[in-house]
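Supplementary Note 3. Input sequence used for the single-chain structure prediction.
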Amino acid sequence: MPRSWEVLLLESYKKEKCANVKKGYADPEDPLGNSILLLSEVNSEPGEGILPCTTRLKFILRLLLVKKPSVRSLALKLLAFHLTNEEGADAKRPLIDARVLSRVTNLFIVKKPIELKLDDRRELVIKMETVEKVYGVFTSDDVDLALRKSAAEQLAVIMQDIKMHAVVKKLCLTDKIIEYLNECVGQDGKVIECLIQPSLTLLRKVLYADSLMRVSLSQQTSLLTLLFRVSLIFHEDSAIVTEVGALFCLLLFDEVSRMDMWSINTSSKPSLPSAFSLPVSVFRRYHLPVHAHGHHAVSPYSIVLPLSSECLALKPVSDMLKIAWNLSWHHGIDNLLKQMDSENKIQEFSDTLKLSTVDILTLKITHTASGLQDCFHSIVQAAAHREVRAAVTRMSFYLLNDKLSLKDETSPCGVTLKSLAWHSALNRFLQVLPACTEDEKLLIDIVHFLKKLIKEQRKNPPVELLKWILELLLRRNPNPLLDLLVLTESQAQEETDDIRTAVRQQLQKELIAFFNTLLLSFTAVTDRKCLELLYVFQTQLGLKLHQCLRVTNAPHFYGLPSLERTLRGMAHLTAFPGWSSHSPSTKPLEICVKYLSGLLEVITSFYVERGGNAMSFMGKGVTKSTVLCLLHLSHEMMAQAKSSEWMSLWFLPLGSHSEEHAPAQQGLAWLIPLWVDRDPEVRFTSLGLGSALTMIEAGCVALANSCQNISGGLWGTVVNILLDQSECSMVRREAAFILQNLLVIPMPTEIMKDFTWQGPCVHDEDSGVSLTGKPALQALLYHCHFYDHLNQMVKRCYLGLYRFDLKFSAFNGTFKASNSNGLDDSFKFWRTPSRISNQNQDPSSLSTSETMVTPSVGSAEFQPLVPSTVLLSEALHDQFMAQGQHEIASSQPTHDLSLSAPLPKQCVFVTPSLLSAICSLLDNLLVIAPQDTANSLQQAQLIELLCSIADATLLETCVGELKTSLPPFPPVEHTQAQVSFLLEYLSSLSRLLQSCLLVDPNLVVQEELMKPLITNIIGVLTICTKDISDVELITAFYHTWTHLLELLATLLRKAAPLSLPSITSALAKHWATVIDMFCKCVGLSVRYPALYNASLQFLALLLTEEAKMHLQDKNKTCLGHSPTMVLLLDEIQENQKSSAQLNEVILQCYEGKPSKDILKRVAANALMSLLAISRRAQKHALKADLIDNCMEQMKYINAQLSLDSLRPGKAALKKKEDGFTKELSIIMQLLRNCLYQNKECKEAALGAQLVPVLYSLWPWLLMDDSLMQIALQLLCVYTANFPNGCSSLCWSSYGQHPVQATHRGVPSNSMMHCILKLASQMPLENTALQQVVFMFLSNLALSHDCKGIIQKSNFLQNFLSLSLPKGGNKHLSNLTVLWLKLLLNLSFGEDGQQMILRLDGCLDLLTEISKYKHKSIPYIPLLIFHNICFSPANKPKILANEKVITTLAACLESENQNAQKIGAAALWALIYNYHKAKTTLKNLSIKRRVDEAYSLAKKTVSDSKKNSLHAYYLKCLENLIQLLNAS
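The predicted structure, written as discrete structure tokens, is reproduced below.
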């Protein structure tokens, strides 16, 4: 490096604003970057170096933020010198060594940067005095640290307002924080660690707003090292590390944060304080832990050099200038080309700028519209094949150009082709059979062009183009494109010509590829006519492809490329459901059977009878496509067949042809060798075929019988594949599906001959014990360490994208989930499976599906992932030889898939898809053996591990990539697949967790598990999907949301007290987004009813559980620690818009559904819960006329019931009444919740004549106790604290009664009379309805008008007829307690007290009742006496009743304080202003009791001021003593 360059760098570093940017270029591998790093070196003597000490330290700290890890590692080494040589380093934490520094290379590379932003409010929200008080608490040494931390957090919130900064600056906040930081890094600093995070937040906000303070503090070396030591101490706390990183950004980049430092024209005026802003170059070179504003994308000091005159004279420049001039002169290329084609060419400028012939031709060709138009004319006017082929080839190049320029279907080529009538130009070449080789070559080019055109427009294919192609393909004879798939006899004889044969093969290749592309393009088509044409074409194509497969005797059948192409086309076709069902002459199942026989013929001819792929010459693609076709065919046959009899069609004869005397067997044994094929895709597809066939019971039985000669049987084979760590995930996933299907069929607990399905069978050779069914399953899982294997599988899960590693680099040691070179375990890379030991066993000695447990085998150990050293060819050959294929010289099977083989030392990544299958498998195991499976899950800690994989942040990141990703890398399809796999896993996990909650809630209900799980669930539910265009991916999201909402609902049902606070807290953090999600789900009631149900049921359950908790204990303090739904819906002002949106959507959901729609009930339940808990919802319902609408519906139901009662037919009438009863029940419950504690709604109900409507329905209510109970609940809510509502029940002449209602009990003059009559005639056994009736009467007892009717009706006489318990039973009946509550409410008014006193013997009965106990209200009789004593008119009657006086006096000696207070208050009220009572009560017994009670109360009640009831009690006793002692 020249000396001048070093001097330049050194001088530039003296200018801090230049140094900040240049340090980002530090790099030991680059000459410039290395020179920059040399400036940070320190000489041997402490403190000496090229740069000053402070500048050098700031330089090194900036290097910790650069993007290159090697530079950050070097910066840590340089920092170690500063920290170890710092004054007092031995007394500071942490001790600096290599171990400490090695783990903090990425210390400030944070996931969630801090946004640097403060508020500047016009008005002060908080008083200055309040801020000073909070600051005093924060800095006080006498206050507890928890309170100081809380004060610091409050200060941090207050400091969000810039106007508050002046107060704390005056109080020297910065110095205090630095003091705390120094104390923290001391040896005894752990005490004060809780204050560090809020202190750092405070310092950041103050520094952000004060540039002068930033300048001052940035020069303090001690502060910079102090902050770095704090970050080392808390390196595991991301919040504190992020705060320190933000402070470093403020202090280290302050010089370039001000715009005036970068301004070219500096002004003499002082600049106003502005927001912290950094040059864009800083963001490019550094990995900053903050989000800040940016300025100067281009440096103002950059210089753009003008072009030299010599450059302008160059020919390329002049050509560019000519074209640019002409384009501008003619206002675009379109006008220019028109001018060139016109006859009248006017030259308006110099010849120097005139376009040459080459220029004009170049413009015509590069202009897409002109070029395509020229191609079109060439095709129309062509006189030979060569011209047409050249034009079609040029059209293909235009498509390629659009693809390379990353243009979509709106590209110039696509737009131009839509406007050109090129269909007719190509039509004549596609409607006739080619007569010669040149015709076939031309047809190849045209078909190739059509294929490319459809492929490029696959995302949004033009419907007209597809219709034209389908109509062309479905023409009657001749139909060249389909007919050319199958060679005629004459064409087969002409195959001796090699050139013609090659052309025809190429034509068939292009045709099949074209058909495959055409089929794939219909995934996004919705046009009905187009789809109908497609269905017919699919069946026709299927028949033609089958003809290609049937010519087994033709020589070209052994041409594997041709066979592979045919099978690949069949695989594309059969992937579409219903492909066989649109033939006018052939039934779907017949077509499927033809396909099945042809495909099995391929398998038997080239695979099974030739020893699998180790000896067969069949290509890999043939095997893969054949098995894939069989997989698709199995699903098609299941859909088309009406029974499972088709399963026998899949059977093939077993045994080698060399065994002439071997008995022919039938079964699916041909499928088993495919499970151990060398190709993982063949293994995956064949196991998928096995899982498809085992979806029905006949398939399970057939497959189990076919595995009888394999050691371990079907169960052992599949379990072995599932637990093979060297196998790829997609293969193991299908094995899990087979196990899952096998578990669906009920299995016995012991050997039973009547059972066609015995399940697994395990035999112990040592003890001779055999187990069958469920016990055998448990033994099998225990023997193979099933749950331990699953534990390891979950730990090896990799959630990232799988990419192909061209180097095939092996792993070294254990892998990390963050490895960016993750390998695709399904297609890109697969490990050699472990060698399986051979054991020759006689098949006759094995049970049909027996698993041999070898006692000599020890427990398997899990080995780490190590590089593979086995040659692929050798390992594959050995693997095949161990599969169990029959050798020619032996009749004994040599296959063994025993579980006793040790676990392999090689393993591959586990994908989320495999874990999804594992979750489904565990779900079925929980059904088969609930308790055993639950215990195993708990011991292996599988639920915790499975939940830890759920990551909403990763899913959100992937969705973000879908919105911004550009082709070709990374492909959108790969990201979509990753998102689909993650969503599939979340769905499976949620179903498993629901089953766990039903079997054993303790598996899930754990605080450390449940909180992050709920946070992730809400995170997934709030992912924005509006920009996702893929229909299947959107459907996957909705499917996952459904299961997640069902899981949350199950959590609330099984563990509401523990889960409700976590759920509401998580909802509060994303409230607006959650409401949007709910509204979206509710709007999908037609397309996704399951999601609609799940969302509304979860919302209803959430609101209901909170209402229950609130009612159980209204003073429960825990409700205040986390946001409640009431707070979110009603009290937070920012949520008003979201709450209104939710109210509107749910109300529309209810009112928009017809009454017979089952979805209406779900919406009604949600609306009920919402109205019960939200005042805003009640207000919205009132404005939306919900009350009036409900009244109209009730009137309509009454009219319909009355009309139907006149019609004959009791059965039809009963069914119709049931429907109206359910609807009426919903309406009354909605009204009940709408009126709950809402006076405005009650006034609206009064105006809408609620009581008259219920009065008209009264006969129908009497017929149904449940309906009557709901009606009475409605009236209870309506009359509570609403006198006008109570009075409305006393009105008469409500209207006419329905005909033929006399036998049901005709109502009296008013609803009040009906209620009293109902209460009088209520059966004692109907306790629920009895309780509601008396609750309602208790409300009415507070109304003057209602009390008048009660008095006139002699209803209270029924109280005197109550029978009290006798003998040892001292507990009152429920009816007696209900009567007492009614009388208590009557006693609150003087008229009610008179009604009680007029009842002969009522006081004596109450006195007798007071001797009994009841757990709910034990002192109601005393309270009644207490109330009566306050009325002067009642005192003589009370005084005359000696039993009442004795009872009240005995209360003073009661052990219960409540009884003492009631008695003292009643006696004081009785004596007050009643001289006769004074005289009567002056007897020694009562006076002594009062004195003793007073002296005892003064001793026991220490501080009566803190308890108002105690104070009142003392006051009562003092006044009693005073009155009794008065003369």
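DSSP finds 72 helices and nine strands in the chain. The two ends are 119 Å apart (CA to CA).
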